[in-house]
Amino acid sequence: MQKTLLKEIVLEQEQGRKAIETGIPRVALGIVSRHTALPHAVVISGIRRCGKSTLLNQIAENFYKKGIYYLNFEDERLVDFGVEDFNNLYEAFLEIYGERKVFFFDEIQNVPKWEVFVRRMQDKGNKFFITGSNASLLSKELGTKLTGRNISTELYPFSFTEFLSFKGVKLPKNGLSYTAERANIKKHFAEYLKHGGMPEYLKYKDTALLKRAYEDILYRDIVARYDIKQVKALRELGLYLLSNIGATFSYNNLKNILGLGSMNTIKSYADFLQNSFLIFLISKFSYSLKQQFLALKKIYCIDNGLAESVAFQFSKNKGKFLENLVFLELKQKYPEIYYYKTSNNLEVNFLVKKGKKDLGLIQATDNLDNEKTRQRELNSLIKAMDELKLKTALILTEDTEEEIKLKGRAVLVKPIYRWLLEE
After folding, report:
1. DSSP class of residue 221?
2. Which of 393, 407, 320, 404 is nearest to 360 (CA)?
3. pTM score above 0.90
4. Which of 33, 217, 239, 364 could make a disulfide contact with 323, Cβ separation 3.0–4.6 Å?
5. E strand map for 171-274
6. From 1.20.1560.10, 3.40.47.10, 3.40.50.2300, 3.40.50.300, which CATH number describes the 3-154 domain?
């Protein structure tokens, strides 16, 4: 690409970057701050529109006031940018700003073999902050030239704590001991439960923004990148998965439902949706890897608001939205999450592995007011605790708090909004 065009894009993007509001400090900012002194490239991945560019701005404002080199590769004028163009880009940076040692590259996965340039410049003492919205492409490229030379972190939409900060709600120092404080937090939790945490949507409250993000994932991140021919099948698969949060499925059943001839095609499409951070699929827990592989998968989504705008009717699926919130919090805390089925086919929503032998069981439900529901949830947990030889378990509800002791086991019941605010 011509250097004159690159200089024009760099200058224009820098003006746009400085005009972006830095927003509320993200929790990820504290994580990234620990890596600024390291020579490693810091890689921030996550779904489109979750705030990666804003986080880059926060990093620049907090740690690099002397200046950075910045380029967002989502710019349509860079559609033909290749690895051979990095030298011209670097010269453009030098001519505009002089020598700087820190590069910020947004949506880098759009450039094949970008890691070659990054590694070469790292060897010269330069620091890189990189964002991307495709897990597979990033991991593939990081695993070639940058093995051992990068630190990766995933950025999610706003957590409940970040949501409250965005809304200007300050958590009381004495916890939620007063009725008025608790009522205020519960009111905001109800909003968060339905609308999720996508920053731009929460700012403007226009569902078209969420639908546009979803369309961009389908068409720009999947159809265009992987040259998908069966676009209708991909759309139907995306809609089905987002409409069945918390449900189990098999690839063979999906093949029949969608009328596709190949189970491998369904699996590939589901992998593409996972790589774009739109959905997550978890396995049934088993000490046998073969059994894990063969068992049905469960579906979760990156954001309640996005799922609701594309597929759901919130009022009919409140329990699934609560379960999805619990999953998203667990996903950020534990490296391994499963669902559990007892020997008599009772289900526990989540089993988390904290270590080789340290397991935790978590059930998520609207409430325990109905005696039938209460017994179902407790029976599942007690049976699972017996099989796994666990003494404690957790039930998360919309607004119930108690401790239940049964057969030498302790089940703690907690409101999800309280649990989300715990460190």
Report:
1. I
2. 393
3. yes
4. 364
5. 248-249
6. 3.40.50.300
